[in-house]
UniProtKB/TrEMBL annotation:
Protein name: Urease accessory protein UreG
Subunit structure: Homodimer. UreD, UreF and UreG form a complex that acts as a GTP-hydrolysis-dependent molecular chaperone, activating the urease apoprotein by helping to assemble the nickel containing metallocenter of UreC. The UreE protein probably delivers the nickel.
Keywords: Chaperone, Cytoplasm, GTP-binding, Nickel insertion, Nucleotide-binding
Signal sequence, renumbered to the chain: none
Organism of this sequence: Actinomadura nitritigenes
Superkingdom assignment: Bacteria
SUPFAM superfamilies cross-referenced by the UniProt entry: P-loop containing nucleoside triphosphate hydrolases
Coiled coil: none
Localization (cell): Cytoplasm
Region Disordered: start-end pairs: 1-33
Entry function: Facilitates the functional incorporation of the urease nickel metallocenter. This process requires GTP hydrolysis, probably effectuated by UreG.
Amino acid sequence: MHLHHTDPVISDIIPPAASRSDGRPRPLRIGLGGPVGSGKTATVAALCRRLRDTLSIAVVTNDIYTREDAEALLRQAVLPPERITAVETGACPHTAIRDDISANLEAVEDLQERIGSLDLILIESGGDNLTATFSKGLVDHQIFLIDVAGGDDIPRKGGPGVTTADLLVINKTDLAPHVGADLDAMERDAESARGSLPVVLTSVRADHGIDPIADWVCRRLAEQATARA
Ligand SMILES: Nc1nc2c(ncn2[C@@H]2O[C@H](COP(=O)(O)OP(=O)(O)OP(=O)(O)O)[C@@H](O)[C@H]2O)c(=O)[nH]1
């Protein structure tokens, strides 16, 4: 299923955080994973810009040895600094999001205590390979990002990120002509690997394709609100 941005923006129907009463349930947690350099930080930044006026958002970044992704988000001022936390994962980024999630859970709890009223926490994994997935104990939903420059055969190769993530993003479509990638084949292969799970093609740097991702996030929030009603 290809996501198109034709429906009303669901964020329009979610009341802003400030107008909701407190005693609120825990914020929705969405993980963003995918290979090194596929555009996870750029997507987190774009989502924050798109949704920060509607939702109360915080971000946890996972880097292997540094705090670079958090610093990039801070430099771009996508959110106030107290809403961005970095976890240094050491050698194995997938361990910190799948096997021993304690450092990430602690970061999430710290943010909840510090900010108080959060709707959404975006958790960006360190760049890894096609097998990295998030523990369901850490996130409610996961987005997997691959990029066109990584090779147009990646959707065909599969792997749990490509086949089972709740949303697959194929980023850097602007590079397709330069790297000889066949976007139609990528989309077709992704859709056949994923059944009814959605796929969206983006060029995040050109701000193209962010609206369908933002709408998808807002739908998950709306579902969460309905489930609790
Ligand atoms: N051409 C192009 N470049 C992009 C796009 N999205 C991101 N980039 C660039 O790709 C590089 C990597 O992007 P990031 O957002 O840092 O990727 P990442 O997945 O967070 O990287 P790691 O955290 O190192 O795994 C940066 O130089 C971005 O500017 C895009 O849509 N098109």
